[in-house]
Every structure is written in structure tokens, then in C-alpha cells.
Amino acid sequence: SHRPSDRHAGRLGTTRRSLSRRGSASPRAFPRRPLDGGQSEMGDRGAADAGFNQHNEGGISLLGTDGKRYVVDESTAQYFYEIEKLVEKEPETPEEVEERVVLAGNALEEAVGHEMALSMDARCSRVMEKLLASCADDDLVRYLEGITAGETDFHTLCKSLFGSRVAEKALRVVCARVGKTPSEALLGKIAPRLARVADAVAATAIDSAYDPRVSPVARALLSALSGRECAPSAKNSGLAGKLKGGTSAAGAFDDAPDAPAERHVFQSELRAFSDAALAALEPELWNLSEDACGSAFLQAMLIAHKGDTASLNWIIPGFLGCAPEEGTKEGELLADADADDVRRLAESRAGSHLFEAILRAAPKGLMGEIFRRFFRDKMRALASHPTANFTLQAMLGATRDPEHVAAALQELGQDFGSLMRERRAGVVAATLAACARLRSGERDAAKSLARGLTAKGPARVGGRSQLAPSLLWMDQHSGAAGGRCSVLGAAMLQTVLKFPPDCVPHFVESLASMTPAELLSAARDAGGSRALEAFLTNPAHKPKLKRELVEALRESFGALAISACGSHVLQACYGASDARGREQIVQAIARDEQKVAATRHGPFLMKRLGVAEFNKAPEQWHRRTEKAEDVKADFLATFGGAEEGDDGDGDGDRRDGKRKASEGSEEERVAEEESPKKAKKEKKEKKKKK
User: Fold this and answer.
1) pLDDT of residue 259
2) What are the tens digits of pLDDT across the range 365-379?
3) Residue 272 clears pLDDT 90, i.e. is over it
4) What angle in degrees, to the nearest 10, is found between the helix axes of 388-398 and 425-438?
5) 3-state secondary structure (DSSP) of residue 239
6) C-alpha gyration radius of the chain
7) CB 101 within 8 A of CB 137
8) Which helix (H) or strand (E) is 71 found in, with range?
9) Hey, is 264 helix, strand or coil?
């Protein structure tokens, strides 16, 4: 759905101001490296004529996109050819590092006045990248001055295939040098040069956003100004980002709106660049959202302003096709946005990525307005769309309001089964992860999932519940015999097992009652092994059910030890077993010690479980494990109740009051489990005393 910019000119504002907030040593001699036929590579792949890039008599002559010819004399070009081999290998010792710094300073001093030509040349550009990574701060600043001397120099450099790489490398080096707490002297040198680079990009904002060579450089500039990585991250925008809190800890992601910047923020330069660039891009915003490079640049702009509520409250409405007046109250910022345009943006293959970035960056108030205007009472239609369903998943992964999760359950809960059959299980998985992350609606979500799984299939086979197998092999018609587990199904089971046990008793029972063949197949799968680990390592689940699962795997301990994924499940089984079960696990590994040691993970597994110690001195191994068990029991008795939650009498919302009320019963349960071991020890001590 490619939309011309003039169609939306009225919504974006008649003027470009509507998106604005405010109205050393001498060069050394090195052995010459032989040239291939006396000629260098072409300086620009886009040139069809060899006359554009010439190496006459050893010199360099390149024709830039601005129509100028950039020339390097023969002696300077020969100097860089000769040091090419010296910078191929990375320095290892402190002496080599010091020599590389001196070499970089000498070479960049020799390049003064020729920075553009050397950076755009196919051969010398690689040398320049190596030198910039090792040079001193003053040499880096001098290079930035050289490529921004003229008004169009930086844009010409970025339009070159090889020059764009050197420019991006220079900005990455700036990020590394500035760090978290730079000195005032360094900031005084770097800030003016970054401002000149920002002015050069803003002056050609439209061409820079569209161009596949300049757009990455512009995103690197945003990273340098904002102090955070602005390139779209696969971790945050992929499946893991949408399921955070379900398959992983919610705090393990750096895309939280209040996440601090990783480095120093050039606040004034960033705001000035944003004002100028967005004002220039305003007529092309809709078209940019449909372009791969343009959409990536707009996403980087959102990431750069993460945590800046005032900036995002005028940037995001502009991206959605409206320009609210200054002083507009919260909740009315998107009053002029066209719902049909936003829907088409969510359904567009390129625009949906921008919409997902908007949802991840939106402040809480603006996120609530986006949900109210564009998601409420529309989620079932969005969930069925082949592209818009990813936008819905991003909303569920980014929301911090339990009311949004409750509304999603109300609209989608009864259709969980049909969504999974329509191959829209990602929406179901994102809803479950939002419930686990916000600790809201877990019981209703589990019931809806169970109804969906049993709507078209048997609830029990041979007296065993089929909920867990149905999730693990959701995409296989023949169950465990069909092959690997479903990625989304295993992720949903892993999420469900993080719910309070009283909310998911049927899922826990189903997992514990799986056949040994099913458990072995799941344990050796990447997704299924994580689901089993989530059950075995969760202290809230009953130890009796865990031991039943471990007993079902007893004949397969050797096979699990050899498998890379199964070894993690085996370690979880070891942690959930009693003394006798742990001894059986170690004995099984010892029988196949040669096969296990031949695997990549085998030595670590054997060291972790003490297999060598068991073979040499079993009694000593028993004493060590008993001591570790006592320490663990004392720890659980002291701290376990506050961590483990309620024992199954609550409603699953994990409120603080109910958690405190359940601490006593949880400690009693742990004490009851440990009492037989302590009684045996007391008897042994009495016998020794007698």
C-alpha cells in the first residue's frame, strides 16, 4: 500500500515547522607491497567507466557524486600501499598496541588533505578503517575535520560504496572513545565535529534516509549522539522480545522505555539534529515508512529518543500522520490520526516494523492512547492478518498496563484454539507472556488455552492428559513420533509453567504423566528441553511431581548426558532429585563416561556433577552431596518462602499480601520434606555417641 506524500500533506502539516518543538612523528619507511599488475581496485562500484577511478602512475583519482575529482599524489598513495600489510594483523602485546598507535598517528597525519580520496578508494579505505580503530583522540578529531571541511563533503563520502564504510567506522570509534563518563577536554573536541556531521546529514535528510549507503551512517550518527545502539535489534523486535517475561526474565532486555543510556548523551546536538531532519522529512514520512532504509532510519530516531517523553510525544504523532498543537493534553495527541491510515501501516510489510518500534518506544500515556484508538475492539481482526498480527504481538510485548492484557483475553481468549489452527500461535504466546510478565489474568489465560487445545482433539489418551503433548508437538500430526517440538508450543508451555501452580494444575499433571518416550524426545529438543527445565527448576511446583518426571527418565540418563540439550535437563533432574536419584544419575554418566567426555559439553557436565570424584571415592562424594543438601535446606528454610510464593490456595495473581500469608505454610512444607533426612542423621549421631 504505497501512499504518495501529497495525499497526506494536510495531516502532516502544511509547513515543515509543524514537527518542530520551538518555532607527532614523521612518516616511517616500510617495505613495499607488490601491486597486482600495478593497478588498484575500482574506487566506486557504481562507476561504469574506468575513467571515473584512475590510478595513473601509482596515484589515485576518483570522481565523487558531487562532480569533483579527488586526487592523491603518487608518493602518498604508495605510502598507504606499503603500510597495508602492517595493519592486517591485530596487535596483541602492549608493545604492539603502542606501535600501532604511533603508526596510525603518522599515517593519518600524512593523509591530511587527502581524507576524502583515501576513504573512497577500494584499497586504501580498508587501511583507513584499521588506522581509525587504533589512532589517538586528536588524530580522530583531525580526520572528522577533514571529511566535513566542505558543505557537501560528508554526504559525498557517504554516497561512495567504500567511503560510507569508513565514515560509519569513524562514528563507531567515536562511540567507543566517548564512553560513559568522558572528560571535558574530549567532549570539547568531539561535540563540534559531531554537530558538523549532523548538519551535513540533516541538510540532505531525504536522500540520506533513502540511500542504502548513507542510511547506515545516519543511524550510526544517532547512536553516537544518543549514547545507545540505535540499529534495530533482532533480540528486541524478534520473538524473544515479544515473549519477554514468558520465556525469559522481563528485566533482561534493554528496550525498556526508562532504560538508561549506555554512553554519554549529546543532548543539545541530538535535539537540533532531530528538529532539522524531521522537518525536512515531513513530506516523505509515509513513503519512508514503506522503504526498507527509510523505515530503519525512522526506527533509529525513535530508539535515540527513548526515555525522552517530551520528544516522543511529538515525534510519534508525526509518524502516525498528525501534528498536535503545542500544549495538547495527554490522551488527545492522536485525535487527528486517521484510523484507516494507521491500520494500513500495521498491515504493511515494511510499515509494520516502524509501528512495532513506535509501540516499543511509546511512553505509558501515549501507549494507552494508541491502544484505545487503534487496538481496542479490533484485536481479533488484527490477529488474523498475516502482517498485522506481528504488530499486535509487539503491543502485547511492550504494554505495561494490566488492563490491556485483560482486554486482550476478553477479545481473544475464546479464539485461542482457532488462532493456533490458523497458524497465529504467536499471538497466543505473546498474550500468555504478557500475563506472566504483569502477573495478571493467569487463571483465565490457562483456561482459555486448555479449551483451545482440547477443542479439536482428545483431552485424554489412556488416562493421561494431552495438554502438554499437544503444546509441545503442536505442528506435528503424529505427536512425539513426528520429530522436533514446536518452537511456539514449547515457548507457551514454558510460559504456562511460570504461572502459579494453582492456576495450571492440569498442565503440570499432564507434563508429569508423559510417557518416557515423549519425555526423552522433548528433553533432546531445543524448545522442549527449556520447557522441562522450567518445570524442574521452579520451586513452586510440588517435589513429588518432579520426582515422578525424573523417574520416568531414569532409563534415559545416559542418552540425555550425550545430548547437548538433554544435558541441561539432566542437570535440572539432578537438582530436583533426592540423594538416591542423584547417585543413579552419576552412575549412569559414569557407565558412559567415554562417550560423554567425547562431547563438547561432556567435561563440564561431569565436573558439575562430580563424576570423577564418585569413581575415585564414592563415600567422599556422598558426604559432599549431603553437606550441600543441608546447606540448601537451611537456605530454603530461611529464604524459600518469600521466593516460592503461595502453595496453591490463592487466585494466581501473586499479590504481596497473599505471598506473605503463604510463607509459613511453604516453610512447613520444606521442613516436612527435609525431616526424614534430619531424623536419619540424628539416629546416626546417637549411635556414634553411644
Assistant:
1) 72
2) 999 999 999 999 999
3) yes
4) 10
5) helix
6) 31
7) no
8) strand 69-72
9) coil
Q: What is the C-alpha to C-alpha distance for residues 201 and 155, in angstroms, rounded to an integer? A: 7
309, exposed or middle or buried, with CB in 10 Å at 0-12, 13-18, 19+?
Answer: middle
Cβ within 8 Å of residue 237, ≥6 positions away: 353, 356, 357, 360, 394
pTM over 0.85: no
Residue 70: its H or E element: strand 69-72
Query: DSSP state, 254?
Result: S
Which alpha helices (DSSP H) does 537-578 contain, by range?
A: 543-552, 557-562, 564-576
Between residues 176 and 27, the one the model is more confident about: 176
Integer CA distances (angstroms), 138 to 26, 142, 169, 183, in order: 16, 6, 16, 14
Cα–Cα distances in angstroms (integers) from residue 171 to residues 55, 260, 403, 579, in the given order? 28, 21, 43, 58
Q: Is 648 left (phi over 0), alpha (psi -120 to 50) or beta?
A: left
Cβ neighbors of 248 (< 8 A, separation 6 or more) are 240
Residue written as grid cell 563518563:
181
CB 399 within 8 A of CB 379: no
Condensed to tens digits (0 to 9), the pLDDT of residues 241-271 reads 667 666 655 444 445 666 778 889 999 999 9
Please report where in the chains the cell 572528522 appears, as a residue: 144
- At 494 the pLDDT is 93
Residue 414 has pLDDT above 70, yes or no: yes
Alpha-carbon span 535 to 516, nearest angstrom: 16
> 86 and 109 in contact (C-beta within 8 Å)?
no
Phi, psi at residue 182, to the nearest 5°?
-75, 160
Amino acid 235: pLDDT: 52
Q: Which of 254, 255, 271, 359 is nearest to 311 (CA)?
A: 271
Q: Which residues pair with 60 in a beta bridge?
A: 72
HSE-up (13 A, CA, CB side) for residue 300: 29
Contact 438, 400 (CB under 8 A): yes
Using an 8 Å Cβ cutoff, are 560 and 529 in contact? no
Q: How far apart are CA 660 and CA 657, in angstroms?
A: 5
Q: What does 194-249 look like in DSSP terms, one character per residue?
A: HHHHHHHHHHTHHHHHH-TTHHHHHHHHHHHHHTS--SPPHHHHSHHHHTBTTTB-
Enter the C-alpha cell of residue 555: 532409563
- Tell me how far apart the alpha carbons of residues 582 and 550 are, in angstroms, rounded to a whole number: 10
Give the pLDDT of residue 35.
34
Q: Is the pLDDT of residue 641 over 80?
A: no
What is the DSSP track for 361-401?
A: H--HHHHHHHHHHHTTTTHHHHHHSTTHHHHHHHHHHH---
C-alpha–C-alpha distance, residues 310 and 373, integer Å: 21
**Residue 3 burial by Cβ neighbours in a 10 Å radius (0-12, 13-18, 19+):** middle
Work out the average pLDDT over 398-422. Answer: 93
Report in angstroms the alpha-carbon separations of 456 from 417, 419, 452, 605: 8, 13, 8, 42
For the residues 625-640, what does the mean pLDDT come to? 78
Distance of CA 185 to the CA centre of its chain: 34
The DSSP secondary-structure symbol of 502 reads G
pLDDT surpasses 60 at 670: no
Cα 423 to Cα 414: distance, rounded to the nearest angstrom: 16
**Among the ranges 8-12, 658-662, 680-684, which has the highest mean pLDDT value?**
680-684
Helix (H) or strand (E) holding 461: strand 460-461
498 in Cβ contact with 538 (< 8 Å):
yes
pLDDT of residue 617: 86
Distances 129 to 120, 126, 134 between C-alpha atoms, Å: 11, 5, 9
Q: Alpha-carbon distance 282 to 663, whole Å?
A: 58
Residue with cell 527435609: 674
Q: Is the pLDDT of residue 171 over 80?
A: yes
222: its cell numbers:
544517532
Mean pLDDT of the chain: 81
